Amino acid sequence: MNDIRSVLRAYILENLLPGEDPSNLTDDTELKESGILDSMSTLKLVTYLEEQFAIEFAAADLEPANLSSIAALQRLVQSKL
Question: What confidence tens digit (pLDDT) does each residue in 12-32 have?
């Protein structure tokens, strides 16, 4: 599970928060409410996760609660593996 979390953190820090101090991104940081994820970045993140972990999300999987934080995304990916 830590691998999923590491992949998520690395992707978000590299692609959505370049130059940000990694300590500012916790497992519980609200990704949508803080403005880190918008509709376009969410689509890119979901596509990346599907490719990275060879999984496929259904539309119902992409409800806001599942995309709210690294911890929530980790649980979602884990449920698809």
Answer: 999 999 988 899 999 999 999
pLDDT tens column, 40-75: 999 999 999 999 999 999 999 999 999 999 999 999
Residue 11: how many CA atoms within 13 Å on its side-chain side? 21
CATH of domain 2-80: 1.10.1200.10
* Domain ranges, ordered by start, for the chain: 2-80
Cβ-contact 70, 6 below 8 angstroms = no
What angle do the packed helices 70-80 and 39-53 form, to 10 degrees? 40
Which two three-digit tokens encode residue 47? 């596509």
* pTM for the predicted model, two decimal places: 0.89
CA atoms within 13 A on the CB side of 50: 12
